[in-house]
Amino acid sequence: MIQIYHNPRCGKSRNCLAFIENTKQDFEIIPYLTETPSFDALKELLHKLDLKPKELVRTKEKIWIENFKNKTMTDTEVIQAMVDNPILIERPIVVKDGKAIIGRDLELLKPFLETL
User: Fold this and answer.
1) Rounded to the nearest 5°, which phi and psi values hold at 38?
2) What is the Rg, in whole angstroms, of the alpha carbon atoms belonging to the chain?
3) Distance of alpha carbon 109 from its chain centroid, rounded?
4) pTM score of the predicted model
5) Is residue 97 left, alpha or beta, with left meaning phi > 0 and alpha meaning psi from -120 to 50?
6) Known active-site residue 16
7) Catalytic residue among 2, 3, 10, 29, which?
């Protein structure tokens, strides 16, 4: 089953969700702002995405700029910052068959959903 880590206030996330709905595949919406992934779940998502923690951070968010931007942080600290402030997590994240992709670009999402 497909999972989408979704923020309904984000246009890219809404577009991604609509795209997934049109595939007629089963999916689960994870409202990550209210159901924040645990530290371990976020670490697993990073593994599925094949990204370093900093690569998943929305670095233009006010919280990041004001609290973390110029700090030297370990991967653990970056993950914890995202757990504590889920708005920092890049969105939407789509998970299928043990792999994940950031679903902002529908042209990349389409083959991801078709090939797995």
Assistant:
1) -70, 170
2) 14
3) 13
4) 0.93
5) left
6) no
7) 10
